[in-house]
Amino acid sequence: MVRFLLRRLGSLVVVLLVLSVVVFVLQQVSPGDPARAALGANASRQAVAAERVRLGLDDPLPVQFLRFVGNALRGDFGTSFRTHRPVATDLATALPATVELVLAAFVIALVLAGVFAASAALSWPLSGLYRGALLIGATAPPFLLALGGIILLYAQLGWLPASGRGDGGIGSELSHLVLPATVLAIAPALAIGRILRAGLESTLAADHIRTARSKGLGRAGVLAHHVARNAVGPALSMAGLQLGFMFAGDVVVEQVFSWPGMGNYLANSIPVSDFPAIAAVTLVLGAVYVVVNTIADVLQTAADPRLA
Prior knowledge:
About 75% of the residues lie in helices and about 0% in strands.
């Protein structure tokens, strides 16, 4: 297990280093001049040249890359060209909102996936309708699902608010969170649910499960005491993968619901070529994705040590 952890940590470092190289290269080849973007379109050539020197843009590329990585490790991503604040300050405001949304969506996804898998494995009444509805929701584009939810639950029924994060009260924050989190959770719920259902059904067909049933243990008891642990490994790996996808793919949902998170921050930074903000968000979301999947691999190995 220790060797496995060391291998995964080594892989984590390598992937993060590669991610840093990719972000740095994209920043170098992207059109536009960061110095001019920082000063504005009306800045003189002399001012732009002085700004390039100040930003170190004329230094050799290896020097720029080492400075880029060193600053990122210290949490120094420079100053946003759009907000004129340190990018780290902007991220400190936006990241908690994104974490709140994604974690709420992840909990909803796990619940929906568990119901999906258990309803199929235990042949619950009307389970086919539920699975069909989840399948339809997962195949719809997120922006379409979001707009449909707003039209139905806000415009028609008035049950939930359509945008924002709330006014600070728990009730208001929860009501604003439900709809975007559910939209973000639908597709991951189906992916996790399918893997979990396959694991449950294959384990239920095993010889030791038939023995447990012959001793009078009900199907629900068999599922809880003998099946869940053996079936949860692949689903756990898929859950980690989907959690990473949520962090990387919540830009559309945050935009539709005006959620003040990192996805919205990134979407507002791209049109104005806010390079420090774009690079910072890409690095942070990429690091979150890699770390989450590493944790999922470790948990899956803990559940089944044979994978180490």
